[in-house]
Every structure is written in C-alpha cells, then in structure tokens.
Amino acid sequence: MREDVEALDISDVTGNWVNAAILAREIDDRIKALADLAHTPLFFGRLDFLHAPGAGVAEGGEGERFYIGRRHVHDADGDPMVIDWRAPVSQAFYRASKKDPHDVALRRRFGYTGGELTAYEDEHLSDPEETSGASALLAAEIERPRVGPMRDIVATIQPEQDEIVRADVHGTVCVQGAPGTGKTAVGLHRVAYLLYAHRERLARTGTLVIGPNRSFLQYIEQVLPALGELDVAQATVEELVAHVPIKGTDTPQAARLKGDARMAEVLRRAVRSGITLPTEGCVVVRGSRRWRVASYELEDIVRELMDRDIRYGAAQAALPQRIAHAVLVKMENGGEAPDDRVQDAVARNAAVKATAKALWPAVDPAKLVLRLLSDAEFLAQCADGILTEDEQAAVLWDKPGRSVKTAPWTAADSVLVDEARDLVERTSSLGHVVLDEAQDLSPMQYRAVGRRCTTGSATVLGDIAQGTTPWSTDTWATALHHLGKPGSRVEELTMGFRVPGEVIDYASRLLPSIAPDLAPASSIRENAGALTIRQIDGTSAPEDTHALDTASALTPATPPALTDAVVAACVTALEHEGSTGLIAADARVPALGAALTAAGLPYLEPGTETSADARLTLVPASLAKGLEYDYVVLDEPAAIVDGEADLRTGLRRLYVCLTRAVSGLDVLHARPLPQALA
Q1: Which of 49, 460, 519, 601 is the most buried (most CB within 10 A)?
Q2: Is 183 annotated as ligand-binding?
Q3: How do residues 364-399 score in pLDDT, each as one tens digit?
Q4: Is 184 annotated as a binding residue?
Q5: How far apart, in Å, are the Cα atoms of 631 and each of 21, 441, 574, 612, 653?
Q6: Is 182 marked as binding a ligand?
Q7: Is 550 annotated as belonging to a binding site?
Q8: 399 annotated among ligand-binding-site residues
C-alpha cells in the first residue's frame, strides 16, 4: 500500500503550484501513516459471523470472516484483508460474549512476540456447549513486559472501555479510573476512533490531548501514530496559556487563590474598569454640516453594549459603528440619503474614534493582570466583596515588576492572563479535547481548557484519589461545572488490568484518608509475591520484614544504608525482563542519581524511551503520575509524603507512586511508614 502511494505521479494532475504543494503534503502524510512498525502486528483478531453482517438471521445467507487490526489493509485489487478496529463491524470483537454473541460464531485472538505470530486462541461464542473462561492470551498481552514507548491497548480493550471509546462525538465523557484501569489508553483510543468516524469534521476543527507534564506526553506520543493518526496536537496546560514568561513561584495559599473560580469575576471587573460614561457629546463634521450625538445618546449606546455582556474587544469594535449609526439616523432625518459606505466613513472619523477610545479604551490582557497583581488599590476595587483583605494581600506580588517582561510571573498568573485574553477576544475552540489527569487542575485551569472546546466535546480522564495539588477537585461534578460541561456523562472504571492485586490492595489502604467516597479498585491479576516491604537500619543488611508490624520497633537507618539498599534493589529488579522505575521524593533524586552512577548503573529520565540496553529510569515522585514500569523500587515513602504542602496531598502523591508497578513493587524505608498504611 505504501509503495502504491510512493509511486503516484502528480506532475500533471494539479492546476497550479498551490494545489500541487497541498497534494504533495497529503501524500507525504499518507506515506507516514503507512509506515511499518516492526513489533506491531497488522492484525490481532478474527471474527467469523454466522450470517453476513446486516443480513440478519431471517434472511439467511452464509457467514463472513473478518480479520481485525490496527488499521485497514487491502490487497493489490483493493479488496479488504484487515478491517480497522474502529469500523462498526469490528465492534463485535470487543462486545461479543457468551450471553450476547452478536451473531459471532468464532472469535480468535492472535498472540505475537516481537511482531511474529506465536499463538492463537478461539472462543466459540455461539456454541452453547463451550464454557466461557478467562483468556490466556489476553492476560499474557496485559502482563507483557514494558520496554519501549507506551503500548496501545487496542487488542485488549474490554466492553466497558469500548463503550467509552465509541461514545458520540457530540457529548463530553468523564472517566473516573483507578490506577491500572487503562483510562489514559481509553482516552487516546477515543481520539483515534473519533478521527476515524468524524474525520472531516475534526480535520477542520482540530483535536488536542492535554497531559500533566511534558514527560508524560513524551511517554504516550507513540500510541496515536501506531494507530495511523499523525495530526493530534499535544500540550500541557502550562503550554496552552504560555502568554508570559514564567519567572517566579507562588506560595501554596497564593496559588490556591489565583486558581479560585472567584478570580474570573475579579478579572471581568478589571477588564471593564476602564469603561466610562460620557460627559459631553460627539460632533462629526461632514462637508459643510455638523452632526452632534448628545452625551445621553452616547450613554445609552455604552450601557447597551455593557448589558449585552459580549466580549470586550467585540464591543470596542462595535462602538464606533454604533456612534456612526446614530449620526446616519440624524443625517436621514435631515433629508440626506447616506448608505453603508457613509457609515463606515463616519466610524473612521477622528472625532468618533477619539470618543470611542475615551469611553471604551483598549485593554492589553498581560498589562491588566500586571496592574491587578501590583496595585493594591486597583485590586481592592476589582475584588471588593469577592476576596477578603487577607486574600487580596496574599495574591499581590511582594516585588512587582515594572513591565510585562520583568514581572515575576508564575504559572497561576499565566492562567489569569489567559482568562483576561478570553474576556477581550474569544478563544478559538477545537472539535475535541482529551484532558488527562484532570483531577489536578484548579477551577481557573478548567476554565482555560473549557475555552478550547466551547463548541466541541471533551474526554476528561482522571482519578480523584490521585489529585496531588492543593487545589485538586473533590468531585467530578465540580470539575465539569468549571469546564463548562455540567451534566456530562461520568463513567467509572474500577477493574484494574495493570497493577497486581496485592499492590493495589495495599495502596487502597490510603483511600479512606485521601478519597473516602471512592470504592477500592480490584485487579484481574493476582501475582503472588508482587509486593515486598523492607525497613532498612544502619547496622544490619537489609532483610524482608513485615513492615506494618515492625515499623515502630525498628530505628531509622542512616541515609547511606538506605541508599545502598535501594541501589541493590535496582540491580535485583534489572535481573527480570522489562523496565524498572526507581521512584523517590524529589529531594532524594540527586543523591540516588549519584549512587546509581557510582554503582555503574546507567539510568534514564522520565519520558525517555526505554530500550534493551537502558531499562532503568530514575523518577522524581512529582513526575511519576501516568507512568508505568514492570518493576518499581520505591524509596522512603515518608519522604514522599513530607515533600508536599499538606498531609492529604502527600498521601495522594504516595498513592500514585505505589501504583506504577506492572509486575512487582519493592518498598524500602528507614523511617516509619505513614500511619494511613497501617
């Protein structure tokens, strides 16, 4: 198929160089979409239907066979060999069961290793004598070691996941997913499905995947190309609102207040603070005649624009035209017959422009926010009745800059600038936005994302229990309200496919402290011995202990003893096949990095693709969210908790770190474990 595209001759099929360039680009994109992926098979399943799809039982007819794969494949004659997993006929591969076979006689799953076919497994769904059981190939695919980029789950999508993937493009779907339930992969496959089912619409309006950090986006960026989708933009929230240079950091209190939804009304007042009512009329000279718009008429025009609550910039552009229209009415009453060209000329009149500028001055969003955070009197005027005096003092900069370039902008300030920009000029909307790790956003950040899909839909992914910011949401209803999508469908995924049951059960001990309303997740994987907890002291060699019984009795080890034990644990983990992640509190990362280097263990940074020669990644706890490794060595849980601003956030961060392992988790600590784990 790729060679056919490469052989196309477009030299005589375009009328001009513009069309030729566009067509050449389309061909290049097509060639990229048809690239070979050595370790990704073109098909992974087969469906044998009892009857031709769409014919129905009553009409009879012979059944049909379809191979299901990651993309459509046809032969030299154009006949289909593999059906795209997103096609309607492929839905039965994911939804058919013994109870509801979807007219499927046989479902075959193929097993692959390194891109080569190694096994297959059949289910005779319409055979009442065959009993249903767990799929060995499905389990093997889920548990396969992770080396390389994040893998797509298209071959292992479950019925409840498939319902979310194929949900209608017109609606917003929120997915509450416990660790290991595949919510991120579901979101990415939903993008791929929507681009397949609504390609023309989304090609015009665009799609966007928003992740928590750049490391996470690098980790997932290979999934969509593996599905043949190349035109999906990816960004963090910080990149979306990068209107000013970030130079400072906020205190937790200031960041929480700047992210509060009340700031939207403060900014609205600030944007409109320059609007003034006229004290005198506007005189327009046209030839030998003078036309005067009285101050009360100007006031009516200004008040009407204010009451309409349209964007500030749109009203600013409309004001000269409204004044010009008032002049035209007077000209008509005076016996003249002006047309639209005269109105445009009057709107450009110097007197009209000067009056409009005085009544409705231009607003620079960055300069406005600069003034708001620097001028206590201006902030008090705009925040009166909204923020208390103490809250206003917390929001103000201690050392304000003199200009936009020198101001000590923070990440939260940039979101305020984005809000101000939208109050002045409407933000362009995309067709679909996927927002991952959504529980961590502040109300103002939700508003920033919501502005990017006001006329489109969204897929919101997250886990309340993994909220690791002081302002993280407690309910999805609140988050969807700030996103501008109230009443959207909320789905919950509680069956884990990635994290071993022993590990998720241990991590779930934190739920009563961090998310009491969530039900503990379960796992289809029962890996005995997947969890090891060891307390290290400074005098004896590390040994396996039952930490919950002995934590209070053992004395903390000196840091070198713990560090040595952690390095040794990494060596042991690397003896297994697959990737290893060493996760530690951010403050511990430099010391552990030096120890790994001294021990001759090369390591990667989060987001860097693992390979057969480099399988160890050193992960700061703050960047662990969304990542997964076959084996995880977790350093000093108490230090991870202490690294956050408050206990709840610290325990949530620990919950994230405990649930990154696919095959095994080794927890090493010198200090007592947090009480919530007891």
Answers
A1: 460
A2: yes
A3: 999 999 999 999 999 999 999 999 999 999 999 998
A4: yes
A5: 49, 29, 8, 15, 18
A6: yes
A7: no
A8: no
